[in-house]
UniProtKB/TrEMBL annotation:
It comes from the Eukaryota. Pfam families: Kre9_KNH (PF10342). Residues 24-117 form the Yeast cell wall synthesis Kre9/Knh1-like N-terminal domain. The lineage of its organism: Eukaryota, Fungi, Dikarya, Basidiomycota, Agaricomycotina. Keywords: Signal. This is Yeast cell wall synthesis Kre9/Knh1-like N-terminal domain-containing protein. Residues 1-18 form the signal peptide.
Length: 176
């Protein structure tokens, strides 16, 4: 009995410790207005299957309320390049990206660091944070932005924490 309880507690702790983190954009990884920009996150450490992506600004004169830019985003993608229309916001500071429940946008799963949207025509940062760490020379917002793609390793490394390998295979998160 005690052993089962200990195993259940350990399983629960592994799920609770699972974290969804937005790695880009951020303080040193801005967007360019009305351009393609990339959002990246730690998909392998999250138990959330999907979420809504919102854009928010701390200054309500810039953005009165969080704006949904993607209604349902699958977690396993690890990154998403948004269109020019989705990033058609005024240049300014104080923006954040929010990942929220698809059923209740006030249930926030993750929030990016504050970042700036620079004016159309500005250059992109030359160093970006990605899922696997930092890469240099790839603009975060360019059409050719590096997608968060992982190669090598074991299948278990691709399965979100708290999910069984069988469930991940059934959902198409990994390919055997």
């Amino acid at each position: 009995m005690f052993r089962r309880l200990a195993l259940a507690c350990a399983a629960l702790l592994s799920v609770v410790s699972a974290q969804l983190t937005i790695t880009s954009p951020g303080t040193n990884d801005w967007w360019v207005a009305s351009s393609q920009n990339t959002i990246s996150w730690t998909c392998t450490t999250s138990t959330f299957l999907n979420f809504t992506i919102l854009l928010s600004n701390s200054n309500t004169a810039v953005l009165a309320a969080p704006l949904a830019i993607i209604a349902v985003q699958e977690n396993y993608d690890c990154s998403k390049t948004i269109t020019q229309q989705q990033s058609a916001q005024p240049a300014g500071t104080g923006y954040t990206v929010l990942f929220a429940s698809t059923l209740n946008s006030t249930d926030i799963y993750a929030q990016s660091q504050p970042f700036e949207i620079k004016a159309l025509g500005s250059s992109y940062p030359t160093t970006t944070s990605g899922v696997g760490g930092t890469s240099t020379g790839t603009p975060s917002g360019s059409a050719g932005a590096a997608q968060a793609t992982k190669t090598g390793g074991t299948l278990a490394e691709y399965v979100p924490v708290g999910m069984s390998m069988v469930a991940a295979l059934a959902l198409g998160l990994v390919v055997a």
